[in-house]
Structure formats: structure tokens, C-alpha cells
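Example (one chain per record):
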Amino acid sequence: MIPMNHYLALSIILFFVGIYGFIARKNMLAVLISVELVLNAVELNFSVFNRYLYPERLEGMFFSLFGIAISAAETAVAIAIIINVYRNMQSIDIRHVDKLKG
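Predicted structure:
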């Protein structure tokens, strides 16, 4: 059995790579992927803590499945917004989105 520390180390790496990508990237799709990495790190934590603390229960797995469903819905809405921004501006650069105001 793989120790819990290995899973948590992977989760921490995913989380901070996602945070870095969210801050450093200027492309809307790259930012969306970074947000998904952060959400995957959280879902991994739900599953790991459920497995090690309450192996007979499935609450952490259900939280993970719920999180995956929410992530899929959030991704669909975000991609629709990105497509509309691209149609209006011919660019998906975050620095130019403020031109859509008023």
C-alpha cells in the first residue's frame, strides 16, 4: 500500500502548479486548466483522507465525484465564455478582456 505522504506530496505539487499557472498565464484556456489542477488536488485530498481515516465509508469518494461533476459544469460554462470572448475580440488574452466593459 502506498503511504499517505506520497499522495499528499502529489496533491501539494498539483495545487501549487495550478496556483502558479493561474497567476503566471495570460491565456484564458491555460488559466482554466490551472484552476482544474487546483480542483483535482482538492479531490485527491478528499479521496486520500477518506481512504486512510474511514476506509469502510465512502463520503470522500462521493465528495470527489460531486467535485468532478461541478468541475465539468464549470469547464463547460468557462469554455462557452472563452468562445464568446474570442468571437468579439479575436483573442483570448486576459490582458485585453477589460476592453469588453461598457
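Caption: The domain at 4-100 is CATH 1.10.287.3510 (Helix Hairpins).
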